[in-house]
Amino acid sequence: MTTVLVKQTEGCSDTELPLEGAQACLEELKESLYKKEREITELLESEQTPIPPIPVAQPPCAVLLRVVVEKAHDICSEVSEARLLVDHMFEENRVALAQAREKLDHMSQMTADDNNRKEEDNSDPEWLDCGTEHVLLLQETLRECEITQMALDCIRVGDSPSLSDCDTAPELDEMLGKGEGVKSVGQQLLLLQDQLKQVREENRKVVENYTSERTMRKKYYNMVEDMKGKIRVFCRIRPMSRAEAAQGGAIAVGCLDDYSVTVETPRGPREFQFDRVFSGKSSQEDVFQDTNSLFSRLIQSAIDGFNVCIFAYGQTGSGKTFTMVGDRDQKSPGIMPRAFNAIFDILQENATKFDFKVSVNMLELYNDRLQDLFLSGAEAQSRRVEIKRNRKGLVFAQGAETKEASSAGELFAMFQQACANRHIAATKMNVESSRSHLIIGIMVESRNLTNGSVSFGKLSLVDLAGSERAAKTGAKDDQLKEANSINKSLSALGDVISALSSELPHIPYRNSKLTQIMQDSLGGNAKTLMVVNVSPSDCNLDETLTSLIYATRVKTITNIAQRNLESKEIAQLKEVIMKLRSGQPVEDEEV
Ligand SMILES: Nc1ncnc2c1ncn2[C@@H]1O[C@H](COP(=O)(O)OP(=O)(O)OP(=O)(O)O)[C@@H](O)[C@H]1O
Question: Which residues, by range, are in coiled-coil regions (predicted)?
Answer without folding.
Answer: 19-46, 182-209
